[in-house]
Amino acid sequence: MRRSMATVCLSGDLRGKLEAIAAAGFEGFELFENDLLSFEGSTQEIRQMAQDLGLTIVTLQPFRDFEGLPEPQRSRAFDRAERKMDVMAELGTDLFFVCANTSPQSTGSLERIAEDLYELGERARQRGFRVGYEALAWSKHIYDYRDAWEVVRRANHPAVGLILDTFHIFSRNLELSAIAKIPKEKIFLVQIADAPLLEMGVLPWSRHFRSFPGQGQLPLDRFMQVLRETRYDGWLSLEVFNDQFRTTPPKETALDGYRSLVYLQENPLEKLPVQTGGVAFVEFAVSEEMAPTLAQFLGALGFQKRGQHRSKEVSLWQQGQINFILNSEPGSFAQAYNQVHGTSVCAVAVLVEGVEEVLQRAQTYKAPIFYGPTGPGEHQIPALRGLDGSLLYLIEAQQEMDSFWAVDFELAAPQPTPTALQRIDHLAQVMPAAQVLSWVLFYRTILGLQTSNLLEIPDPGGLIQSQAAESPDRSLRLVLNASQAGGTLAARFLNEYYGGGVQHIALATSDIFGTLERLQNNGLQLLPIPQNYYHDLEARYALEPALLERMQALNVLYDQSPEGEFFHAYTQTFDDLFFIEIVERRGAYQGYGAVNAPIRIAAQTRLYKESLRTLSTPLRFRPD
Ligand SMILES: O=C(O)c1ccc(O)c(O)c1
Ligand SMILES: [Mg+2]
């Protein structure tokens, strides 16, 4: 099947769209009527542009409100069609795209509609064209592809065929099995769109929220399976109306579209999730001046310096299975990152089974791969470059970590202090709202992560959208946060950080109270939680008074699910850039305490405003 994209998917002007479509690797495009009408040049120029870019004009679309009309509208519709075919001839495209009538004046008589399509087909045939007929989910009568197929079947004309569009099929929850019985030469075009499951009218859902395959929740694999049964081998064309895509550069969106089609066409068996073993390490980009303060912060959190890099200004900090790297090496990627973002996470390393295969997947998906400079004998760790410019290192999962570190680091013997924090529970990433779908595709296609439903979290300055991306065994958990409002904590992070990145790291313990007591004695400052929160908890859950008291004393937040309980607390923000969460999961609780996010965000906002009022340094970590 050849890959195509409708120009409506992209932002910008027609030339920019076509260049982006060609650069991403598509062979054809659907020319959307608006892009033709708003183009300054002639149809001949469009034809030339397509030819120069090596693109086929799959169709000019859509032709609306054509079939089943009474006279005199019927004759006028045929006149309009003739003029449209003149334009098609100039463009050099041969598929006349009719979407089913939405006009209240149209009849639902299949016989009448079939007659109109027959006549149009005959006129098209005389010019060497074909007519494709698409059911729209909101058409007056023909909103089910099976009815559209019935009409095409009755028209019984070689130049009249069917157009299938996955959005219209799934948004109406239609049975797919009838597709398998349609002769492949009667399917003239297949349009592909995914979408999140939303409860709203099909028209606004389609016009604003469609997405590329892998970014939504429609069972497109099932569609592809029945489509394969027909042996259809024509165009597979992305047709996505999405508000976010209208704000992102067309080249990036087109590339995402290309990736999503490759993903869709991949054999489902090859889509088997990558086996991950969680986060191997998190690397901080820190300036030489800030490195001692960050080291103190980590010390207060119970981390020990385990190693010093043999050739670089890089140190290794450990606790339990958690590894943090502090990188202040001059001239390094980390330093460049630090200069833009301040003290920040510049890289995350994940353990995967089969690094080579993941790199191959990355290549298939045209994801940039990065190899940093290394000294003699040091590890060469391949990395993927994330959309925010940070790195995602890939490390083979079956790895003895101490010998792994010993290659690059001078290791000290671990000191026998009680371990407070055991492993990385999850990382929370903030990103511009327009980038969320891109990240979802990145994690789904390359790492095989699964994404959860979108949650909306109230922030004092607006709404934050939050979504989890997890490996099937949950060894790797990420939380993706975005804000469209300018005044939210997430938006402020984007501003101060100059872009997206890891905003917090959640570390797991099996004894949150003992741990927090110990860390507070180390000088760690926790995010203060208001008393009202605990009054409300008391009313909601029948918690032991002693437990509530302890939670309040240590600023611990709480959530409960049928599977278990979640206790969590936050450090104050480091340099106003990121913070650490300390979590204890009891039972099989799988969430992230999202109900408490508004409390946390309000507390952080309060502290931030206080620091502005008192003009105190924004540095929130001050060990005594
Ligand atoms: O939203 C629309 O009008 C529209 C137009 C053409 C299509 O192919 C389609 O699926 C929807
Ligand atoms: Mg369509």
UniProtKB/TrEMBL annotation:
Its cofactor is a divalent metal cation. It is an enzyme of class 4 (lyase). One of its GO terms (molecular function) is metal ion binding. GO terms for biological process: 3,4-dihydroxybenzoate biosynthetic process. Pathway: Aromatic compound metabolism; 3,4-dihydroxybenzoate biosynthesis. A divalent metal cation binds at residues 134, 165, 191, 239. This is 3-dehydroshikimate dehydratase. It comes from Meiothermus ruber (strain ATCC 35948 / DSM 1279 / VKM B-1258 / 21).
